[in-house]
Design a protein that fits this description.
With about 280 residues, this protein is α+β, with helices and mostly antiparallel strands. It contains seven helices and eight strands; from the N terminus they run ααααββββαββαββα. It has a five-stranded antiparallel β-sheet with strand order 4-3-2-1-5. A three-stranded antiparallel β-sheet has the order 6-8-7, with helices on one face.
Length: about 280
C-alpha cells in the first residue's frame, strides 16, 4: 500500500512538472502555426502586387511557412529535452548537403532575388553577360534569352545577377549615332546643316532633344562625322530608325553632290628581279 501511495505521489509530482511544459510546448507550436500562415499570406500578397512569377511566389511562401513551423517545433521540443545534439547533427548534415549543392543553392537564391527585384520581365529586350536578346523565360534556376540572331541562351541566375544588366525595353528613349564620311574638300558647315535637315523629319524623333552633327575625326583621306539624335522606341524600332536615318542622309548628300568617298588604297606591283643570262 505504501509503495502504491509513493508511486501515486511521484506520478502527481511528475505530472505537476510535465503539464506546464506540455502546455507551453503546445502554445509555442500553435503560435508558430498561426505565424507561419500569417507570414505566408503576407508574402503572397506582396509578391502578387509585385507580379512575381506564380510558381516562384508559391515556393517562397511555402518555404517561409515551413521554416517557421520547423523553428516552432524545435522550440516546443526544447521544453522537454535538450535538442542541442540533434541540432548539431542537423547542422553537420545541412553543411554537407549545402556544400554539395552550393551551385544549385546559389542559383536558387539568385533566382529569388531576380523575381523579387524584377530588373527585367519575360518579353523585355536586355543585354547581360555579353548576350543581347529577348527574355523568353525566368525560373528559379536560370533565365532563358533568345538572342537577336535567333540563338537560345540559358544563363544560370547567379551569372545573370553577377553581371551588369541593360534593359532596352525600359529605356524607351534611345540615342542613335550614325557615322558617315565626306571628302576633304566638302564644306563641313553645309554638310552639318544638310545632315540635320535629313534627320529632323524622321519618324519617332524626340523634338525636345535637338539632333546634333559633330566632326568625330579626320582620317587619311576623309573627314568622319556623326549624327546624334534621340528616338522614341515605342513609335519606331531602333533598327528601323537607324536604317531610315542612314538612307535619308545618303539621299540628301547625293542630291547636293557632296561626295562620300570610300577608303582608297594604293597598290604597287613589284616585278620580281630576273637573273642575268649569259648570251
Amino acid at each position: 500500500m505504501m509503495n502504491f501511495e509513493r508511486l501515486l505521489l511521484d506520478w502527481q509530482a511528475g505530472l505537476g512538472v510535465l503539464l506546464p511544459k506540455l502546455g507551453l510546448a503546445l502554445l509555442i507550436f500553435l503560435v508558430s502555426l498561426y505565424l507561419s500562415g500569417l507570414v505566408s499570406q503576407l508574402l503572397l500578397r506582396l509578391m502578387v502586387q509585385r507580379k512575381v512569377n506564380s510558381g516562384a511566389e508559391r515556393l517562397i511562401a511555402e518555404t517561409a511557412r515551413w521554416s517557421i513551423i520547423v523553428y516552432g517545433t524545435i522550440s516546443a521540443l526544447q521544453q522537454f529535452t535538450d535538442v542541442t545534439a540533434f541540432l548539431a547533427g542537423l547542422g553537420i548534415l545541412g553543411f554537407t548537403v549545402g556544400f554539395a549543392l552550393q551551385d544549385v543553392m546559389k542559383n536558387f537564391a539568385a533566382g529569388v532575388l531576380l523575381l523579387l527585384q524584377k530588373p527585367f520581365r519575360v518579353g523585355d529586350s536586355i543585354s547581360v553577360a555579353n548576350f543581347d536578346g529577348t527574355v523568353t523565360a525566368i525560373d528559379l534556376r536560370s533565365t532563358e534569352i533568345r538572342t537577336f540572331d535567333g540563338r537560345i541562351v540559358i544563363l544560370p541566375n547567379a551569372d545573370v545577377l553577377n553581371h551588369a544588366i541593360i534593359n532596352f525595353t525600359r529605356s524607351v528613349h534611345r540615342r542613335i549615332e550614325l557615322p558617315f564620311s565626306v571628302a576633304y574638300g566638302a564644306d563641313l558647315e553645309q554638310v552639318q546643316r544638310l545632315a540635320l535637315q535629313a534627320v529632323e523629319q524622321l519618324p519617332g524623333l524626340l523634338t525636345d532633344l535637338a539632333p546634333q552633327v559633330v566632326v568625330h575625326s579626320i582620317g587619311d583621306a576623309v573627314v568622319n562625322l556623326r549624327v546624334l539624335y534621340w528616338v522614341d522606341t515605342t513609335k519606331i524600332a531602333l533598327s528601323a530608325a537607324q536604317d531610315a536615318g542612314l538612307k535619308r542622309i545618303k539621299q540628301v548628300l547625293e542630291e547636293h553632290q557632296i561626295e562620300m568617298p570610300a577608303r582608297a588604297f594604293l597598290l604597287q606591283t613589284i616585278q620580281p628581279a630576273t637573273e642575268n643570262r649569259q648570251s
